Amino acid sequence: TTLEALHVKHCAGVSQQLIVDAGRLCPSLASISFGGSGGRWSDTLMEEFAANAQWSITDVDMSGCAGLGDAAVGALVKHCQHLRRLDMSSCDVTDAAVLVLARSTQALEELWAEGCTRLSTSAIIELAKNSPFLRLLVLTHCVQLPPTIRSACISINPEV
User: Fold this and answer.
1) N or C: which end of the chain has fewer CB within 10 A?
2) 32: closest CA among 11, 154, 13, 103?
3) Residues linked to residue 141 through DSSP beta bridges, in sequence order
């Protein structure tokens, strides 16, 4: 099939199997959005989805999925080598997720991390240093980050 985008954000009736099957059965799938589903999705689900989807995925919106954390981001990075956009806002991620993105995802252009309250300045700086194509970094409501984080990132990567 030639399905390129699947957006089921805030759809309570969507099963985990649908997400996994989309990755397996739709080789042209480039964009998936299943955010806003609270704790319904797990890191295990993301690993299975990413392993099936692999190369085609460039855009993932998992925002608001409290059950997704560092392992989910790690699975995406491991299997989806062309990831350009990731929205992990309000997910249970830490510096480990940001560091795996910084060290493994050269194509990343946009990272949304709104409300991710366990990220540190050092991890964000590492991401800015190692992401040459990063143009959008959204860190609103990351209360532990200092107000100077924006200028620090821009001094390292003027394109951010």
Assistant:
1) N
2) 11
3) none
Q: Which of 60, 107, 100 is nearest to 81 (CA)?
A: 107
Alpha-carbon distance of 108 to 6, in angstroms, equals 20
Q: Cβ(3)–Cβ(22) under 8 Å?
A: yes
For 69, the 3-state DSSP assignment is strand
Residue 111 near residue 136, CB atoms below 8 Å: yes
Calculate helix-pair angle for 121-130, 149-156, nearest 10 degrees: 20
Tens-place pLDDT, residues 39-95 = 678 898 889 888 888 668 899 999 998 889 999 999 999 988 899 999 999 999 999
| Orientation angle between helical segments 70-79 and 95-104, nearest 10 degrees | 10
Prediction pTM value: 0.92
CB-CB contact of 157 with 132 (8 Å): yes
